[in-house]
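input
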Amino acid sequence: MIATDRGGGTITVSGGTYTSSGNNSADVYSTGTINCTGATLTANGAEAVVVEGANSATLTNCTTTVTYEKWGVLIYQSTSGDASGTAGTLTITGGSYTYTGTSGGLFYNTNDSAYIYLNDVTISNSCDTLLRSMEGSWGQSTSASSGGNARLTCTN
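output
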């Protein structure tokens, strides 16, 4: 797992192979800034990428595969105090992104604004949903206080 923790931070990854298999163990979990270039990411028990709060993750020329059944990427605000703000950003340039699940979709956004930028990336989605932006049950209570607000920009 490649992760920043409470308080942010910056991580830069160049190359390598990263596989997560544990329940709720994403390959990339950003409460700061994470940049991955030329990496192979395989998520079997959780999302490939999670961006919490007003933070970011950037994948450049990565091969990303998600076998997790819920969704492939999560952009949200948990209200746990791990990350402040409500404007998460994901940028994927080049490479490929494959989601083999059939029920959740490539991207899920709740309790946060999501800014998703896809540029020249090959997408393979086994689900009929590309983006799910909605009210979800996250944070300190059992019901959500706000829904998602997502902007998806695709180029090439």
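quick obs: The first strand starts at residue 2 and ends at 3.
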